[in-house]
Every structure is written in structure tokens, then in C-alpha cells.
Amino acid sequence: MDEMWSFYHDKAHQIWLWWAVEHTTNTPVAFTFGTREHKYLDELLELLKPFNIQKVYSDNNFAYDKRINHDILEIGKKNTQKIERDHLTLRTRIKRLARRSICFSKDKTIHETVIASFINIFFWNRDLPDFN
Prior knowledge:
Order of helices and strands: EEEHEHEHH
Mean pLDDT: 83
CATH architecture: 2-Layer Sandwich
Number of helices: 4
Strand content: 15-25%
Number of domains: 1
Strand order of the largest sheet: 1-2-3
Number of strands: 5
């Protein structure tokens, strides 16, 4: 599990992508958007309940330490390298996530939709519906 910072409209409107990937295949399992508040980690954990997660690898974010049982939580950068690499993929392929870019989302809904669409297409091989 990890989180990635971005913004819409201007840098005062921060938004975080909270997501979890399956460790061996590096495939996203679930994701949600929000701030760095614990309630968005709670949303992600709720989405993960049907998967009966046995082990969680995360960085040293205090939210994980407070919300996830220590028996299944393993903190450290060694096991989060794959998801960090996914952050780079997102930032490289979605211009509005690049740290220095003139491209940005003006609206939160558009921002979330672009990222969610990319995850659906790139990681899950899902096509967007034909709106014609």
C-alpha cells in the first residue's frame, strides 16, 4: 500500500491517491482518492476486505501503523519499490501528474477520472465504453 500526492486547480487543492497492489504481480487491487486523513485509508481498507489480505507492505506513514494490525503489517522501503515504480509510471504517462508541468486539472472530478481511467486501461486492460 502507498499513497501518491497530486493536485487539481492549484497546489492549494491537494489530492492523494491511496492504493494497494498485489505484491507478486504488481497489479492494483483497489484505490481511492482523498486527503492524507485516516478516513481515506479506512475507505481503501474497506475496499480490500473481500480479499482477505494476509500481509501488508507499506512505507513509514503513521496512518498505516495506526489502522492496520501489526501482525500483518511490514514497514520498509524494500517491499514498496514496485508500487513506488508505479508512481513513476503514472507521473510519466499522465502529464497532469508530472511535478513540473503546465498541464493540470481544473476540476477534482476530471482529475480523479483521468487517473482512474488510466489505472483501468493500463493495469487492468479494461476498455472505456463507447459513448457514440
